[in-house]
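pasting for ref
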Amino acid sequence: MKIAITGKGGVGKTTVAAVLARLYARAGNEVLAVDADPDANLGAALGFGAEELGRLTPVAMMSDLIAERTGAPKGGYGTFFKINPRVSDIPERFALEKDGVRFLVMGTVETGGGGCVCPEHVVLRRLMSHLIVGDGGVVILDMEAGLEHLGRGTAGAVDQFVVVVEPGERSFQTYERIRKLAGDLGVARVSLVANKVRGAADEAFVAARAPRGALLGTIRYDADLIGADQGGAPPYDAAPGVVREIGAIKGRIDAERGSVALAAQMEE
């Protein structure tokens, strides 16, 4: 199971990603949680401390490793390098582990532009492809509101794209933009999770704007979650109501995946 969680900043996608990772681990799965957002804070939401996170280097900043795997000198733009570097050992070597969840930070390419054909970008794209297409277990991706780490073949192999939204027009505009980007990459279905829902008016707003069948579930505005964030506690441990609601969303994700698998078997 490979799940990409995305949405505009501040909507709560990292909370959804962190709780889903813990729920899948509790169910006995091997889980890798990947922070692919430049504003990386998934590690804190999973309960890793500042000292642990301080020892974790984003893959994009591993200049020695990138030079070794691509054959390009550090900072050597404009030179020849391998475009299919070996990356299969990176999760095992560099991920942290806590509560049954392994955690890896992708990082972002700071030079040469977001779409540069540079050694760092090649390694990130190759690693993302390995995690989604070739790696086993459950992979939870906490992504920014773009899909820059994903190529066409990689995006098409993601089992579930989930956009977290708030009950507001700008949030749904972001959903529509992501849905178009995902469609351009060959993704047929992009689902929604509505967060910070306060009452009937918010529910009606979401229901009126969500495409038919796209809404996986809602997460109510929760004081325990606010307290967890202020106190630096993992939402899984501090906000039981949110965990129950995300657990129901997990159940729908699993049910949809089971339906797709059954349909594929019947076609065969």
